[in-house]
Records
---
Amino acid sequence: MRVVHTFADARAAEGVDQALVPTMGYLHEGHLSLIHQAKAETPVVCVSIFVNPTQFDEASDLASYPQDLERDLALCESAGADTVLVPSVDEVYPTPLDPIDPGPAAEGMEGAHRPGHFEGVATVVHRFLTALEPHHAYFGRKDAQQLAVIRTMAHEHDLDVEIIPGSTEREEDGLALSSRNVRLGDDRVRAAGISEALFAAADAAEAGERSAAGLQAMVELEMQVRGLQPEYVTLADAVWMKPVGEVHREAVLATAVPVGDVRLIDNIVLSIEGSGVVVDRGIRLDAPSILYS
Ligand code: AMP
């Protein structure tokens, strides 16, 4: 495995099919499943580790973001990464770098609650995709709106890359894996209520409830009884991330919840199959996450 610090060094040789798995480090099984998926589908896999300052709307969140490069490199090696790119801020942001408009998928939900967040995401991902020119790039469904923003951005800018989604990986009790989970401390148990509330709505959807009002109200109530206050609970279409009145085609039921000092996001994906609704709840680990080892 090569560890490199510039885009020039991370580029694959002419004609070689390379996949990119962009991350902010402090890797967990969500990242590893993207690397495994990439490795199974593409000959050369580059994992990037870059804590992107421009996508943090809270300075304290950036300052407390967990980092451990030695640990991440060992995990990348064991997951089969060929190259790990660890660029400096100057390498990623040579001046002047025009911000990239994240487009209409960025307007609601996270975009409405985190000003500038998706402009930061779209700009950094555009920079990585144009500087590295990977043929495939992998992003988790856990960040459903980010996936939608990147897909529409890549299309809008005619980037010659296939954006491939990976399933949401969860801890044993259902909490979606996030590097921020290590900061939860005593709030860790309560945080499991986020996925429990979403799964209650998933059960209701599979039993016939299709309306946004019904599903959103159920998530809010289930969170309330668990002592959680979501910033939003929204049923949105999975492509444009616009609120919808009921499940049709593919929709996400997405939420953001502050738990102590940590802000967590999660979602489930609902699709119409035949006359019913099927829900993708992601995949649960059957052992404690490497985040805690
Ligand atoms: P991050 O390091 O949080 O920026 O995430 C890097 C990539 O991993 C993004 O594409 C995320 O969507 C993805 N990711 C983060 N958490 C999960 C998870 N629990 N399951 C699947 N993918 C994830």
---
Amino acid sequence: MVIAKERATANRHLLDWVDEMARLCTPDQVYWCDGSEEERRRLTDEAVAAGVLIPLNDEKRPGSYYSRSNPNDVARTEELTFICTPTKEGAGRTNNWMAPDEAYRRLGEIFRGAMKGRTMYVIPYLMGVPESPFAMIGVELTDSVYVVLNMRIMARIGNVALERLGSSDRFNRGLHSVADCDPARRFICHFPQDDTIWSVGSGYGGNALLGKKCLSLRIASYHARGQGWLAEHMMLLEAETPQGEKHYIAGAFPSASGKTNLAMIVPPPAFKGWTMRTIGDDIAWMRVGADGRLYAANPEAGFFGVAPGTNYHTNPTAMKMVEHDTIFTNVALTPDMDIWWEGMDPPEGELVDWRGRPWTPGAKEPAAHPNSRFTAPMENNPALSREAQDPNGVPISAILFGGRRSTTIPLVVESFNWTHGVYLGATAGAETTAAITGAVGRIRRDPMAMLAFIGYDAGDYFAHWLAMFGRMKRPPKIFLVNWFRKDGDGRYLWPGYGENMRVLQWIIDRCEGRASAMETPIGLVPRIGDLDLRGFDGKTANVERALRVDEDEWRRELEEHRKWLDQLGDRVPEPLRLQHRLLASSLEALGPR
Ligand code: SAT
Ligand code: MN
């Protein structure tokens, strides 16, 4: 085994751990990433030579590459994801649990010799900007050059992280190998008490880019609870009004519910003078500032977005963002080596699909995998907020909880208070999508869009959310939103996309105390006249239906909430159970209509 001659650090904790992991995985060589541009070029060339990346048409899409995954490895695998706390109770009822020693032993057997003939890349990385009190340091060891090239877009890697680490032993230890990419030998294990992640058998984003879901959500949420802050699955958006006031909005949505689109929203023409800018599209770390407000920062440095459905109408910003220097995974290829996916204008002629097979328009199966992705650096986003790099984060005015629901949930509901807001987040649900493997189209409860990412017991997580209220002097308002309600014929009642601006405006006006709302048994809902519908070309009757609180639907919904809270066990905090009873009994008190 050859250990790289120039070790980039004198940090003994790091060197010893890398040696130990190299002895386990026996790579042919160990390579320390420095994060430089020269290194990016060199590793990209190596990836191209190895067939891992295919260069795209340099005139149409400069600096961009294409990658196809193993067809068995296209999404996060929640059933193979484990929280390995010392006790099963520590992981709670919503996580898979494996005892730490068993996990180290079982995965250790798979890791043993897994990097033979390969390179072990050492990726020191930072989540957050270097000067930020939010920043967290991780080191990922991986045998995948695809992972290295994606991590260098999604995080700040190399010397910048080593400098910040210095001689400390406080860094997350991540070990990753694609090994033989066998789903029967695929595990994503988190050891919060050891600040360690072991992931084996998958090269897919959320399973393999360890800085993302594994560190910034599962491990971070565990630390956040102990330290009094929140690590959340939220996009972050800056809204500047025509008067020049700025509001920052955080929004939790399950994967593939339009979160990236919302983070890059372009207001309709009637909203002259409004400017919307992106801060983040997936993860928010939130701490209470000295002024008692909640400050949020995006720890990532890039965007790992779902490609299908993205086009110049639904998300022009993302389309511009991916015009250059982007890695595409599992989309389709055009004859002139550009990319294509469902939702773009129909292609001319034959394509090559995500599995490398010829594909003609009208074919039964999609050309791009429904969970195909683009990985683009933050600076590519033409609507990026300057505050995206603010070390202290931005003060949040409103928190949104959303999900894809074709019935029941109104376009927008403001919570009566913080506890009710936490309840709305805790009971939020969504129809399932392609970002996770499993059935598509069934409703699953996804509290704060964090079901797959809470690194401990969900009841304790809700209690932590409730406790955060006491730390704030000016807490954000909490809203439930649903862009996806349908009529009886399955047509959307609300046009969504840029038109969501009308809802955001109402939300901002509520935060400023200048818009009215109607009290309903389940929360505060705008009347049709409370929304600014200037220039709206949809039917107002449909908007009224999208806003409606249907008591029968809500009786059924609340019954589902009860079952859900029962399922979570007795660590669900009493205020949330009481909140449930209050809502259910208020609805009953109205009597039959
Ligand atoms: O599937 S990933 O975790 O890689 C991305 C996402 O779901 O947001
Ligand atoms: Mn996500």
